Amino acid sequence: MEYIQGIIIENENGGESERPRCPRCQNERVVKHGFRYLDDIKIQNYRCKNCSYRFNDPIKSLGFSGSSEIDVSCQVCDGESKNLIVVPENGTTGEISETDQLITKFMMYLRKTKKNATVESQVKLIKQLIRKGANLEQTESVENVIAFQKCTDGRKRNFVHAYSNYLKMQGKTWEAPKYESENKIPWVPSALEVDQLIAGCNQRHGAYLQLLKETGARRGEAFYQKWTDLDLNTKEIRITPEKRSNPRKLRLSEKLVAMLNKLPRKNQYVFGGGNVEDFSQSFRNQRNKTAFNLGNDNIKRINFKSLRHYKGTSEYLKTGDIYHVKRILGHKMIKNTEIYIQTAGEPGNVEWVSGVASTKEEAMKFIDNGFEYALTTPDNFMIFRKRK
């Protein structure tokens, strides 16, 4: 086993002698993160899942000249360059595997009746079942894999729903196991932690998080937002619902409008479109890095849904009107909104940040920054407040 600059080098057989530690936080939760190529050296990159620090192995060289690991596949040209096919050493022509064909077929089947968010999540769940060794043609195999997952019963129920739709596509049924999700009061981050996270992200993710904070939109509702749904002059946004919830039209702050105006307009989507899972992974990397830099593990607990809970809780604290919160979040049933009565807690336990305004301009700045009007003092000073 060789140790170079605190990094453990792979052995001659290609296996790791020991899992490398992150040079920054010394955590062992390290994953491979692609390669760098420098002259005749192939360098393995790593990423720490704890603090998102990226580092590499500067010693391991696989050598391009005379190495047995070189890809010796080639293209043969006779006369004109037509229909060139790269033939790998195993003799295959890169055809799509049967599993990939089934996944694609399942995706197209779901798109006929399901929303984009449901399609993405159920396709992801089926892929996870395959990776964990489940045989999709044997219901008993799938049932066993789901049963032994280290996750909540609510998550297991999602696996069951996804596989039930997969069988329905093939005209089959099964005796599905029953899992009931546990009712828990969701954790809600503080306003300071949300603002610190937004400040620690790049321009695109920062604007996206600010939108979630101000509107309580779901992940897909915000990610697939189009420029045509925004009116930056009137500071309003129209949200197209997911999960059969209600559409809504909401106001935006001056701060968010300024952040959105700085985004490049490459296509019809405000946040550029693309794959929402890749966007989410990039967010997690920035979030973990921010949490490590600030020494606050609570920031690592924040996800996109946390900001929806933050909006619902803060709106109920501000108005005390649960039907107002229902309208803001787009819920169809009031029972889905009642959870925010619990997350708000007792009114006397709430801590506030206060501010004083003496002019109309100062008052407008407080409102744009999320403060609410509290009272006017006898000497005509306006008091504003915002939940910590």
List keywords for this structure.
388 residues; alpha+beta; hpI Integrase, Chain A; 13% strand; globular; disordered N terminus
CATH fold node name of the largest domain: hpI Integrase, Chain A
Largest sheet: 3 strands, antiparallel
Looking at this structure, what is the CATH superfamily of the largest domain? Intergrase catalytic core
CATH architecture of the largest domain: Orthogonal Bundle
| Class by alpha and beta content | alpha+beta
Q: Which H/E pattern describes the elements?
A: EEEEEHHHHHHHEEEHHHHHEHEE
Give the overall shape, derived from the CA principal axes.
Answer: globular
**Strand order in space, largest sheet:** 3-4-5
Strand proportion: 5-15%
The number of distinct β-strands equals 11
Secondary structure tally, helices:
13
Which ranges are low-confidence, i.e. pLDDT below 50, for 5 or more consecutive residues? Answer: 1-12, 59-94
What Rg do the Cα atoms give?
26 Å
Supply the CATH class of the largest domain: Mainly Alpha
Brief rundown of the structure:
The chain is of the alpha+beta class and 388 residues long. It contains 13 helices and eleven strands.
3D structure, described in words:
The protein has about 400 residues and is an alpha+beta fold. The protein has 4 domains: about 5-55, no CATH class; about 100-170; about 190-345, hpI Integrase, Chain A (Orthogonal Bundle), CATH 1.10.443.10; about 350-385, no CATH class. It has 13 helices and 11 strands. The strands form 4 sheets. The protein has a 3-stranded antiparallel beta sheet, with no helix packed on it. Strands 6-7-8 form a 3-stranded antiparallel beta sheet. Helix 2 crosses helix 4 (about 155-170) and helix 10 runs antiparallel to helix 11. It is globular, with a radius of gyration of 26 Å.
